Amino acid sequence: IAKAEQGVSWHRGSCRLCGVGCRVELGVKDGVPMGLRGISDSRTNFGFVCMKGMHFWKCMRHPDRLTMPLYREKKSDAFKEISWEQALDIAANRFGTAFRQGGGEAVAYYGSGQALTEETYLFQKIMRGGLQSNNVEGNPRLCMASAVGGYLSSFGADEPIGGYSDLEKAHCFFIVGSNTAEAHPVLFRRIMRRKLDNRETVKVINVDPRVSQTSRIADMHLQFKPGTDLALLNAMAHVIVEEKLYDEEFVKTYATFRKGKNEKTTFDDFKAKLADYTPEKAAKMCGDTFSPDQIRTAARWFAGSKGTVSLWTMGLNQRKRGVWANNLMHNLHILTGQLLKDGADSLSLTGQPNACGGVREGGGLCHILPGHRLVVKEKLRRQVENSWGVPEGRIPAKPGLHTMAMFSAVNEGKIKAIWINCTSPVQSLPNCNLYNKGMERDDVFIVCTDIFHTLTTQKANLVLPTAFHFEKTGVYGCTERRSQLTRKAIDPPGEAKPEVWIVREWASKLAAKLGDPVIAQCVKPFEGLEEGYELPKAIWDEYTQKLTAHRDNDLRGATYEVLGQMADGVQWPAPTREHALTGGTVKKFVKGIDPMADSESKDDLPYQFYGPAHPDRTLWIWLRDQADPEEVPDAEYPFYLSTGRIIDHWHTMSMTGRIPELLRANPYAYVEINPDDAKKLGIGPGDMVEIKSRRGVNILPAKVYQGPVEGMVFVYWHDQHKDRMINKVTKDAIDPGSKEPEFKICAVQVKRVSGP
Ligand code: SF4
């Protein structure tokens, strides 16, 4: 090993894939990547990486990498290579023309939770400050907008109160709608370790309509009819109230009850509402797949443990009432006081590596400005405009179009120029047959920045090759409010460039084309800076020093200099250098600790709330009813379809599908079907099965096993083959609050079409 490592230098950074934020180091020899390993002094992953994390570096020198700008006038033309000068001229001309003709509403940016914070921040600055458009969106709308809505409406501030360090102190894990074992494998390892070391005293409850690798370590698996988990969560609250398992003092001191944002209610009202959710009634609603006593036991374990951590992802978020589901989860924590103390947290897991840092915090959604500011608040818009030095009123007061509305506007030809960065909506939007149509229009100009061709670059006019991870410098922010720096370690191949360079150069040309000094003002602070380090650092400094001080996500202490010293990065709030050098803040609302001396958290409460929560300084317990999915099975479409993730692949497989080890492990999607359902339909293992909804059809091989609950089939969504791309089938219903689509549930027909 020592010999093989001779001449290899190791460069620290974060994993490029999921939201766990594992710390890794890349080995480089003579400018060539040699391998990747976990960092053992990281408290995030303790040296471990999962299969995906271990292999992603192989994308760096993959022969399919895009290395030159590609252009075509019409979508039916072939791409031809052009120079950067030509590419940026074309992008500036087309966006400039669209803006002149239709203003800010005719242009859009659609980004990603995989983009670096500096990239998202700069894109949205040019869109808002320059092109006067709030049409700034990102794929986190598809996976965690409901979690944002849940945190805001329950706690008054986005993102979790605690973090991963609670896992080692928890005595009960409540895992709902998350196959943590496959979607967040390294975090699951920590949960499993805790369970295996404390078999008798640590309880794991899994709530999921499907048996997964996660449910295999559970003491109790509540497998239920899809879409009925709101009833189950209310029933647990019922037991907690009925058996007086709640923390009376905590509730009295910190909680209020809500029917609506401006509609307070009482504990008695809440109790009366819960009468509809006795364990007996809820067990029936959930499909009679478990007993009322199991609900009682789950509630007792949850409330009675010394510390309960809840974890969830898409099972709760990707729902017609995803925000309500999140509220009901938080309700249980507020009621029982399983919050603000070690080993207790209501922890929504993040899907992507920078959905929190770049998109939620950096202003990457149509209603959010940097620093968790809401677009609709005039005072907050003024703060941003003043810090950018652009005229007041430059940022429109109206939020832009959320993801589904944005691609509807593309369908209708209302958006004339759209920039899609590092994501593939052609595959990842629900009911994608419908939303892909607009992207084929010749009057809609599409720019894609990416490292490989995807189904979406195939619809673009201009494809710009970008630097990959470790080929550029920047920050990711993971699930637990932690910002982590990855520094450039190798050059990108060919003429691929970091996005921050691309946006700066494009914006300069746009300013010249439109003769607009305000656009020029937006990029002025970054002119002439070297792109490998100086440029992203200047962007990070502007964002953190000017725009993060007003709320709890204070990142002023987390400079590149500090982040570069920290094995794990820094958890916000981190208002000063000294504080950031301790690692930041583990619990953002903490009993008796107020690390931010000038915070607004000066009151008589025994818990110091770090930063403003709700204006009344309370946590809100919501009265929410069970709400059915938008589409439920009927005589014509008698099965539920649910979609999800597997351990070997990442999103649209544009990366993991090019890594032979991962592709061999799981080469194509299949449909999981319960043996009883399979028997009724005459389906055997390996048979080809048609899955048809009102929107589209797939044909996939069958995997018959006791996984999905009876009446439900399951397909993973990564596969981009035209017959197996499951988002042709999924439904585009959205949560009215978060605008997140209900990928998780729709109704389908299931039919055997041929043998293996
Ligand atoms: Fe990367 Fe997530 Fe795997 Fe960690 S768990 S190595 S962050 S993919």
Automatic annotation (TrEMBL):
PTM entry text: Predicted to be exported by the Tat system. The position of the signal peptide cleavage has not been experimentally proven.
UniProt cofactor note: Binds 1 molybdenum-bis(molybdopterin guanine dinucleotide) (Mo-bis-MGD) cofactor per subunit.
Main location: secreted
EC number in record: 1.9.6.1
Residue numbers binding [4Fe-4S] cluster: 15, 18, 22, 50
Stored Gene3D superfamilies: 2.40.40.20, 3.40.50.740, ADC-like domains, Dimethylsulfoxide Reductase, domain 2
Pfam families registered for this protein in UniProt: Molybdop_Fe4S4, Molybdopterin, Molydop_binding
UniProt keyword terms in alphabetical order: 4Fe-4S, Electron transport, Iron, Iron-sulfur, Metal-binding, Molybdenum, Nitrate assimilation, Oxidoreductase, Periplasm, Signal, Transport
Organism field: Desulforhopalus singaporensis
Function: Catalytic subunit of the periplasmic nitrate reductase complex NapAB. Receives electrons from NapB and catalyzes the reduction of nitrate to nitrite. Catalytic subunit of the nitrate reductase complex NapAB. Receives electrons from NapB and catalyzes the reduction of nitrate to nitrite.
Binding site for Mo-bis(molybdopterin guanine dinucleotide): 52, 114, 139, 143, 227-229, 314, 318, 472, 643-652, 727, 744
GO cellular component terms, semicolon-separated: extracellular region; membrane; nitrate reductase complex
Any GO MF annotation of the entry: molybdenum ion binding
Family: Belongs to the prokaryotic molybdopterin-containing oxidoreductase family. NasA/NapA/NarB subfamily.
Protein name as it appears in the record: Nitrate reductase
Lineage: Bacteria, Pseudomonadati, Thermodesulfobacteriota, Desulfobulbia, Desulfobulbales
Chain sites annotated for binding substrate: 717
One GO biological process term: Mo-molybdopterin cofactor biosynthetic process
Localization, UniProt: Secreted
Catalytic activity: 2 Fe(II)-[cytochrome] + nitrate + 2 H(+) = 2 Fe(III)-[cytochrome] + nitrite + H2O
Cofactor(s) essential for the protein: Mo-bis(molybdopterin guanine dinucleotide); [4Fe-4S] cluster
Quaternary structure, from the entry: Component of the nitrate reductase NapAB complex composed of NapA and NapB.
4Fe-4S Mo/W bis-MGD-type domain location: 8-64
